[in-house]
Co-chaperonin GroES
Amino acid sequence: MAAVSLSVSTVQPLADRVFVKVSASEEKTAGGILLPDAAKEKPQVGEIVQVGPGKRADDGSRQELDVKVGDKVLYSKYAGTDIKLGSDEFVLLSEKDILAIVS
């Protein structure tokens, strides 16, 4: 079996899925208390690095996604599939799990 090397440039999401680079989680509270790894919350903000071609409509055409590469988005807390490539963390999400575009 051949080994497969995965990177952001080799992963292409299908249908209405997007590949999001997860933003770093908070290291300390507003009061200045350092958080241990077990106490950190899962981040819900990230930047889109790859998008799929879009979902198929009933007539066979593709529906364009509302988000694009480079958009910073807020997504559902427990949505998607977590993927780690090297030292970077990513989430593979369906477009319906994206709650908002952050400006």
User: Anything to note?
Assistant: Residues 73 and 102 are 5 Å apart (CA to CA). The chain is about 0% helix and 35% strand. The chain has a mean pLDDT of 85. The first strand starts at residue 17 and ends at 22.
